[in-house]
């Protein structure tokens, strides 16, 4: 018999993870990030940018998870990074860079709460932000493309991070 959310045995759990989004503006992506944030039990979803809309197009994809996921919209990501740093968060960027580690090789060696930083949908995590993080991770890709949709990448990263937190 197929199980659903009424008869599955998943244990509700919060993880000390905040997802910080830099200029993620596509409504279906925002809606999907709410669903992923809910699925992985993250603490907070923060959208940074001036064109963030949490309207009807977003709610089509979110399937009401925006009602359960702690979230906010802020203008400036730099301010949010400073606040997270001041609150002793471990800053982890999801971006392929000269110093990024493959997600499969990354070992979380901290008891600090984690801020997973997602970059702009078109340009990724900026150099300015990369210089401020504790670590950067990337997902190894084996095809021709060098990037992946922000939601799919976030899903993969949160799967690995929560797996490590729960082991």
Description:
This protein has a single domain, classed as SPOUT methyltransferase, trefoil knot domain (Alpha/beta knot, 3-Layer(aba) Sandwich). It has helices at 27-39, 56-62, 77-86, 127-130, 150-166, and strands at residues 15-22, 42-48, 71-74, 90-94, 101-102, 114-118, 135-138. The protein has 167 residues and is α/β, with parallel strands linked by helices. Helix 1 (27-39) packs parallel to helix 2 and helix 1 packs parallel to helix 5. Strand 2, helix 2 and strand 3 (71-74) form a beta-alpha-beta unit. The two termini are 29 Å apart. A seven-stranded parallel sheet has the order 3-2-1-6-4-7-5, with helices on both faces.
Descriptors:
single chain, about 170 residues, alpha/beta, Alpha/beta knot, 7-stranded parallel beta sheet, 7 strands
Q: What is the tally of beta strands? A: 7
CATH class: Alpha Beta
Regions with little confidence, pLDDT below 50 for 5+ residues: none
* Radius of gyration, in angstroms, nearest whole number: 16 Å
User: Can you tell me the CATH superfamily?
Assistant: SPOUT methyltransferase, trefoil knot domain
- Count up the helices: 5
User: Per the principal axes of the C-alpha atoms, what is the gross shape?
Assistant: globular
| Number of discrete domains | 1
Instruction: Give the SSE order as H and E letters.
Output: EHEHEHEEEHEH
Question: What amount of the residues lies in strands?
Answer: 15-25%
Oligomeric form = single chain
Question: Strand sequence of the main sheet, in spatial order?
Answer: 3-2-1-6-4-7-5
Nearest-integer average pLDDT? 94
Q: Major sheet, described briefly? A: 7 strands, parallel
CATH architecture: 3-Layer(aba) Sandwich
């Amino acid at each position: 018999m197929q199980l659903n959310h009424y008869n599955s045995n998943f244990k509700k759990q919060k993880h000390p993870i905040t997802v910080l989004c830099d200029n993620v503006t596509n409504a279906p992506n925002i809606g999907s990030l709410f669903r992923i944030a809910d699925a992985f039990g993250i603490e907070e979803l923060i959208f940074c940018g001036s064109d963030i809309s949490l309207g009807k197009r977003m709610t089509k994809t979110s399937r009401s998870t925006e009602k359960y996921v702690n979230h906010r919209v802020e203008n400036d990501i730099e301010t949010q990074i400073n606040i997270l740093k001041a609150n002793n968060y471990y800053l982890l960027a999801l971006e392929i860079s000269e110093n990024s580690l493959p997600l499969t090789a990354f070992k979380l060696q901290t008891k600090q709460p984690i801020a997973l930083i997602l970059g702009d949908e078109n340009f990724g995590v900026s150099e300015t932000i990369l210089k401020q993080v504790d670590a950067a991770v990337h997902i190894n890709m084996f095809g021709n493309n060098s990037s992946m949709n922000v939601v799919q990448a976030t899903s993969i990263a949160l799967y690995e991070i929560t797996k490590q937190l729960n082991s």
